């Protein structure tokens, strides 16, 4: 993507934590070309590393999975907000990129993303007018967003008055009482669809939802909700709600990072409709995977024959205090590590001589703003100055703490830098 070329020209400076102080003033491209070593060439702690090999493995695995199951893929870009990773996902067969809020759409458009699925109802007039202008400016731009209320349809219609192209929308079926967004019943969904059909500014193109919000989610409950979603698409089609609008496909979309196996199974059951069906999966956390939440819930635990994702993040921090034999502190905290779902996991210790050993007897018990509290047992043999490699949980709150992330090969060589825009 030519849009990415400018990223390599950005200057390295105080904005980017963890990078070598002596790299100040170099461009990102110049620093990457030096192929510095993360451990011996001036990087400061804390520093977040993204494994080059594991990233590529995860991208390839999900491409294979989607292809094998006849799914199109619009990975959720809010996880990374990294245009370079968007481009790599597209190179690995993604249909487009899913996003959550207008700012994220603007970032994606600035880097040339042509197909965007917005997993929210959009009722902000200024954002809608900008979307309308983008659609008018670029005939190849495809934009789809949720609608889940008649009121939302009315607000969108008012904001889009006079737009050159209608905005494509999918009716969101909520995952049940107590779930997040979405019309709660099929009757509610029908009312929303009828409201869309009465406008000239919106075009109904399908149905969608988010199965991870199913209350008390189990494989059976998730599958039951997904069958409600696919049945809704069939009912809308039988009622002619997709006819006469110039559509060439019907969109049926779901799929976070915890239940995409159920999505694949149920979407395979969709009967033949009046138009081809775009079966759109939206998982996002797979890019880096993790050492916590998604390690526990990934569908590959249920379907090991399909492969396995590999955790690609490691946060390196340095021991800065060892006040007692059973306690130590490293210089990474809430500002650096995801902590909304799980505390970081101590995995490896790197000593002053460069040797690495498992972080046996070391446990992260709490985080302060800039420190992790470690409980240590006698076998830990931890010293001030040692580096501790931490595994992280929840990619969505890991990427957002690091505006420039070293992409690191297994031997520590930094081969590139991933820019994020949160």
Oligomer type: single chain
* Main β sheet profile: 10 strands, mixed
Q: Span between N and C termini? A: 21 Å
Helix content: 25-40%
Count the E strands.
Answer: 18
Radius of gyration: 23 Å
The H-and-E topology, N to C, reads as: HEHEHEHEHEHEHEHEHEHEEEEEEEEE
Which residues form runs of ≥5 with pLDDT under 50? none
How much strand?
15-25%
**Number of helical stretches of at least 4 residues:** 10
Mean of all residue-level pLDDT scores: 97
Tell me, briefly, the overall form: globular
Give the structural class: alpha/beta
Quick structural summary:
With 422 residues, this protein is of the alpha/beta class. It has helices at residues 28-33, 52-68, 83-91, 102-110, 125-137, 150-159, 186-197, 219-238, 260-267, 293-297, and strands at residues 47-51, 72-73, 97-99, 115-121, 142-147, 167-172, 202-208, 250-254, 277-281, 313-324, 327-330, 345-350, 356-358, 362-367, 372-376, 387-391, 404-408, 414-419.
Describe this structure in words.
With 422 residues, the chain is α/β, with parallel strands linked by helices. Helix content is 26%, strand content 23%. The strands form 2 sheets. Strands 1, 10, 11, 12, 13, 14, 15, 16, 17 and 18 form a 10-stranded mixed beta sheet that branches. A hairpin with a 5-residue loop joins strand 12 and strand 13. The chain is globular, with a radius of gyration of 23 Å. The two termini are 21 Å apart.
């Amino acid at each position: 993507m030519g849009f990415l070329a400018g990223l390599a020209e950005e200057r390295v400076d105080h904005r980017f934590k963890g990078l070598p102080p002596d790299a100040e003033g170099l461009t990102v491209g110049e620093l990457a070309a030096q192929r510095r070593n993360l451990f011996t060439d001036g990087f400061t702690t804390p520093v977040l590393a993204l494994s080059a090999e594991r990233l590529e493995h995860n991208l390839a695995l999900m491409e294979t999975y989607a292809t094998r199951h006849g799914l199109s893929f619009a990975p959720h870009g809010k996880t990374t907000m990294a245009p370079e990773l968007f481009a790599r996902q597209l190179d690995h067969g993604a249909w487009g990129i899913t996003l959550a809020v207008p700012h994220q759409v603007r970032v994606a458009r600035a880097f040339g993303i042509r197909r965007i699925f917005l997993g929210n109802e959009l009722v902000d007039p200024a954002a809608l007018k900008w979307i309308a202008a983008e659609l008018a400016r670029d005939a190849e731009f495809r934009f789809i967003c949720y609608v889940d209320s008649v009121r939302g349809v009315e607000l969108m219609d008012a904001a889009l008055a006079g737009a050159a192209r209608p905005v494509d929308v999918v009716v969101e079926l909520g995952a049940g009482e107590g779930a997040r967004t979405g019309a709660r019943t099929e009757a509610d969904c029908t009312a929303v669809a009828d409201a869309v059909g009465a406008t000239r500014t919106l075009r109904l193109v399908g149905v969608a939802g988010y199965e991870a919000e199913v209350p008390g989610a189990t494989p059976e409950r998730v599958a039951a909700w997904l069958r409600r979603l696919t049945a809704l698409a069939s009912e809308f089609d039988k009622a002619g709600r997709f006819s006469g609008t110039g559509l060439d496909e019907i969109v049926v979309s779901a799929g976070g990072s915890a239940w995409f196996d159920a999505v694949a199974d149920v979407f395979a059951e969709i009967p033949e409709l009046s138009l081809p069906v775009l079966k759109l999966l939206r998982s996002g956390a797979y890019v880096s995977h993790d050492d916590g939440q998604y390690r526990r819930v990934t569908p590959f635990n249920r379907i090991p024959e399909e492969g396995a994702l590999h955790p690609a993040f490691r946060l390196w921090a340095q021991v800065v205090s060892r006040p007692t034999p059973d306690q130590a502190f490293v210089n990474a905290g809430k500002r650096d590590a995801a902590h909304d779902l799980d505390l970081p996991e101590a995995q490896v210790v790197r000593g002053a001589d460069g040797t690495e050993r498992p972080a046996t007897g070391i446990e992260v018990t709490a985080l302060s703003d800039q420190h992790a509290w470690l409980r240590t047992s006698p076998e830990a043999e931890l010293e001030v100055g040692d580096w501790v490699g931490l595994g992280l949980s929840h990619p969505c709150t890991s990427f957002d703490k690091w505006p420039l992330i070293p992409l690191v090969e297994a031997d520590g060589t930094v081969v590139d830098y991933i820019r994020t825009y949160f």
